[in-house]
Amino acid sequence: MARRVVVTGVGLVSALGIGTDETWKNILAGKSGVAPISLFDATGYSTTIAAEVKNFDPLQFVDKKELKKMGRFIQFALAASHFAFQQAQLEITPDLGERTGVFIGSGIGGFDVIEREHSALLEGGPRRVSPFFIPASIANLASGFVSIRYGAKGPNSATSTACSASAHAVGDSFRLIQRCDADVMICGGAEAAITPLGVGGFAAMRALSTRNDQPEKASRPFERDRDGFVIGEGSGIVILEELEFARKRGAKILAELVGYGMSGDAYHIAQPAEGGSGAIRVMTIALADAKVLPGQVNYINAHGTSTPVNDRTETLAIHKVFNAHAAQVPVSSTKSMTGHLLGGSGGLEAGLTTLALRDQILPPTINYENPDPECDLDYVPNQARPAVIEYALSNSFGFGGTNAALLFKRFDG
After folding, report:
1. Among 82, 168, 187, 303, the one annotated catalytic
2. How, if at all, do strands 331-332 and 297-301 pair?
3. Active-site residue flag, 163
4. What is the predicted pLDDT for the residue at 274?
5. Which residues contact 231 (CB under 8 A, 6 or more apart)?
6. Per-residue pLDDT for 339 more than 80?
7. Domain 5-248 classification at class level
8. In this predicted structure, what is the pLDDT of residue 413?
9. For the chain, what are the domain ranges?
10. Would you call 180 a catalytic residue per the annotation?
11. Which pLDDT does position 412 carry in this prediction?
12. Nearest to 331 by CA among 227, 258, 218, 222
């Protein structure tokens, strides 16, 4: 029998706040974190808005001499890990170090560093390239820096599966604990791709909202007038522990992780499979993994990007998996408030789903004004609401047709 895995800490850094409590409070208040881009001059771009982490001071979390060694996404991961440890009240002693792992995903890594160092190369030649360029930018160094900080000497890895990256990191960490390769995993994701090239690339694909005159209303998942996603940044880190280990140390348990699914569309580099077959499979696999019936699920934190095709396809997939129960299960997209963190979204949303279970409240989908006839579920429009939530599913789908689903359960002992 597989070992049981619980969540004891959630650390969040987002456009809605630096810290778990602030982010969660603003989620429940239905606030938008979207505003005009300030990280670079977006004049001339078709999209000039994003969900930036505002007033972030990395020196609150990183020594000044270390700062030049890490891109912004690594700084976010360290900050979110700080808040996760604070909530979990966990100390990694030397004897625990080898049983503690780190698994943090990022879809892109240090775009800010890559762009900066490329400019230095063009302007001054190879001697101008920083010796810290590579470690500051490669995707696995979020895991690397976190493991160094906390003395975590167990499994250490990173996923880079586009927008499913940090959901895969959480799910793979779940498996590592289940099969006794670790007792504790620090896992999730981080992203910081609000850069000239990051925004320029997604804008060239026509994937981004161009509702520049109303930034706070631009991310509107499942709504009739949605026109693309809003790029966000930040980090979501959860601390997973084997149940008996958590109990022995007297940890406060926030939720239990009971199911994990992975699938591939094998269809298109950027569009979901027709009919939502990949999404259908991944949700079905997660439910089967937990031995949970569709009718037992009380909430879905949707991938819900605010793009025309994704939202329609995810709705169709939910109908196929949940059948008659689809009309009763609330579905919301917190990306309506946080923007889309790309590879960091699954970690952030795993954390938010955990908090929804802890507090028995449904986060809203804001900016839901005009229903789309092709998106006909209960999207928890505009206001959070109390609910009885026993099981909650979190979906993540990425470019290349890579999908992840995580199933959480209210912890009842």
Report:
1. 303
2. parallel
3. yes
4. 87
5. 50, 51, 193, 194, 198, 199, 202, 208, 339, 340, 342
6. yes
7. alpha beta
8. 74
9. 5-248, 260-409
10. no
11. 87
12. 222
User: Can you read off the two tokens belonging to residue 72?
Assistant: 């912004």
Phi and psi, residue 362, nearest 5°: -95, 120
List, for residues 262-279, the tens digit of each pLDDT value.
999 999 999 999 899 999
Q: Calculate the average pLDDT of the chain.
A: 98
What is the average per-residue pLDDT within 180-204? 98
Q: The tokens of 41 are what?
A: 């001059």
Q: At what angle do helices 277-290 and 308-322 cross, to 10 degrees?
A: 40
Are 5-248 and 260-409 equal in CATH topology? yes
Length of the chain: 413
Residue linked to tokens 């009885």: 388
Rounded to 5 degrees, φ, ψ at 326 are -55, -35
Of 82, 168, 187, 340, which one is the catalytic site residue? 340
CA-angle at 334, arms to 207 and 29, nearest 5°? 130
Among candidate residues 163, 168, 187, 375, the one labeled active-site is 163
Q: What's the helix, strand, coil split of the chain in %, to 5? A: 40, 20, 40
CA distance 156 to 140: 9
* DSSP secondary structure code for residue 162 in this structure: G
3-state secondary structure of 125: coil
Please name the amino acid found at residue 166. S
What is the CA angle 133-171-256, rounded to 5? 130
The answer to whether 140 touches 147, Cβ cutoff 8 Å, is no
Evaluate whether the domain defined by 260-409 bears CATH number 3.40.47.10.
yes
pLDDT of residue 14: 98
The residue type of 253 is I
